[in-house]
Write a structure and sequence with these properties.
The structure is a homodimer of 201-residue chains.
Chain A lengths: L5 H10 L7 H14 L1 H17 L1 E2 L6 E2 L13 E8 L2 H10 L4 E5 L17 H10 L4 E4 L5 H17 L4 E4 L15 H9 L5
Parallel strand pairs in A: 3-4, 3-5, 5-6
Antiparallel strand pairs in A: 1-2
Helix pairs in contact in A: 1-2
């Protein structure tokens, strides 16, 4: 039984494909737009259209961008001897916010995950090897999530790089206690790493 | 400092206007679409366009609809002597799901709320009076939320209807314990109503 007018049902169905959006949330979104007036809906429609038209992948680092190469790859002031390997484009924004890194990036677009249907060939690994072969890269930072797929992928990349380009330094992000955390609630691996990597003050 | 390509930032800003969607959720939505491919984005864009073009207000009951009068107002099998007054269009769907009501509706499009900027004249109250004057309505059910704005609005409508149309029966939804609830945690007003309105079995 259809509860709402057909165009409303259709929009609800389209919104339900979003992560963690169910029937109720999708309904709330649609009725928010219906109440907000045409301008807001039109703005969103226009923004989606621009996304479709203008956003593509940077052919160097595989970040999402509206220029190719993207503004980071095209920036001569960045250190092009360093590549920071990340899983997805939003990871770049997270690292950029720290203002601690001035090299380039490489987005894998996924991780090696035995439980998911990601194929090794879907990842931008070949593209990374091409960059390491053709450019004067001296360090690869593996900035992958510290979980099982992240660790598996990092270990695989590490081994490949050490074999094929023994001169390139491979590093990983430091493990330790996050700001504002409670020592009592830290898991043993994190606390163990924090101890092992303790710094003199 | 712009973190993402301009079209991505623009879409994030448009999404942040949705209820309970902040920067992080909006980012997740946009990157979901970028990963999902063009079809899903295009479907959503089309659905928004249809919403803009096809959905309007029913000029009888003020529900959102793609036909005016809406399919409920136009349905001769429904009981047109009864009007159920609700706050917003989604309330109609909630009542329809019960299969207990076969009359018509009237959407106020808001409530009398001293703390908000809703004006009495924004509500579809004049339109309700017009229906009560022109049609053979015998009962008005006030199906408003049992909270302060809902109660205030119900009391106001009740008084007006009793004065202007003394022959029309005005009713409210029953108060009582909801299914699956725990007597110990029921507030005293609900439990008091449940006691007062107890039914012989």
């Amino acid at each position: 039984m259809i509860m709402y007018a057909a165009p409303i049902e259709k929009l609800i169905d389209a919104l339900k494909k979003l992560p963690s959006v169910g029937q109720k949330t999708a309904e709330r979104f649609v009725f928010h737009w219906l109440a907000s007036g045409k301008k807001e809906v039109n703005d969103l429609r226009g923004a989606l259209e621009e996304l479709l038209k203008k956003v593509k992948s940077c052919e160097v680092c595989w970040n999402f961008t509206d220029t190719s190469p993207c503004h980071i790859c095209a920036n001569a002031k960045r250190d092009h001897t360093m590549v920071c390997v990340v899983t997805e484009p939003p990871d770049i924004a997270a690292i950029e916010k720290t203002n601690e890194y001035h090299g380039t990036y490489h987005v894998l677009r996924g991780l090696i995950d035995m439980s998911a249907e990601t194929e090794l060939s879907d990842l931008k690994i070949k593209e990374l090897w091409k960059r390491l072969s053709e450019n004067k890269i001296t360090e690869v930072i593996l900035a992958l999530n510290p979980d099982l797929p992240g660790e598996t992928t990092a270990m695989y990349l590490e081994r490949e790089i050490k074999t094929k380009w023994p001169k390139i330094k491979t590093t990983r992000l430091a493990r330790g206690l996050p700001m504002g955390s409670d020592l009592q609630y830290a898991d043993e691996i994190t606390l163990g790493s924090a101890l092992k990597n303790r710094k003199e003050v």
